Amino acid sequence: MNESGAEMIRVVTADDHSVFLYGLRMTLDADQQITVVGEAGDGRALIAVATAVKPDVILTDISMPDMDGIEAISAIRQMDMNIRCIALTTFGNDQLIIDALEAGAIGYINKNAGREEITEAVKTVYRHIPYYCKATNLKLARLITRSTFNPYNIPHQQVFSEREKQIIQLICQEKTSEEIGKLLFLSKRTVEGCRLKILDKMNVKTTAGLVIYAIKNGLYTLLE
């Protein structure tokens, strides 16, 4: 527990670059709700550390020597479904991101993400909520929806008003708030307010999360 008596989120990190691991530790340990309880330089070492310390959350690079992060995520999730895994990625690794999610990761972030996003990702997946990197483009979001990854087990279409459903569909079509406002005869401010309400209802943090939720739950249909 931290000084306020709240439960600490116990994290293990994995990457084959020690300098990156050091920076990640500094970032995470600076947050009063998070503590790094272990580190690893490859997939096999990650499994050993995870087995020994039973962390709440793991942040692991996808590409590592000996055993990669995807194999390690799969093995760890088979060992303990309560451990939430976040894949650390680089730009251009779309298929590897899909593979990591299908292996059992509940989120992913780019290795160039800022400190606030890294800690936000950890706190989000700790609550068993998927986290999608803010830099995710809609192409990748759509690839995810076509994958077997589906953290949304129960559809919640009934909680969305008709206006919200219209806005959801237009967001999935890559329309901006200004464009949506013109199409629906709403102010940009009203659209942005609705967008925030939709994100809250879906319990997602990013536009990518909104798109993935919408498609997985039948609120928007992809055209082939």
Number of domains: 2
For the residues shown, what is the average pLDDT? 90
The termini sit apart by 50 Å
SS elements, strand count: 6
Task: Describe the overall structure.
One of its GO terms (biological process) is regulation of DNA-templated transcription. Keywords: DNA-binding, Phosphoprotein. This is Response regulator transcription factor. It is built from ten helices and six strands, in the order βαβαβαβαβαβααααα. With 224 residues, it is of the alpha/beta class. The chain folds into two domains: 127 residues, Response regulator (Rossmann fold), CATH 3.40.50.2300; 60 residues, Winged helix-like DNA-binding domain superfamily/Winged helix DNA-binding domain (Arc Repressor Mutant, subunit A, Orthogonal Bundle). It has a six-stranded parallel β-sheet with strand order 2-1-3-4-5-6, with helices on both faces. β4, α4 and β5 form a beta-alpha-beta unit. The radius of gyration is 18 Å and the shape is elongated. The relative contact order is 0.10. The mean pLDDT is 90.
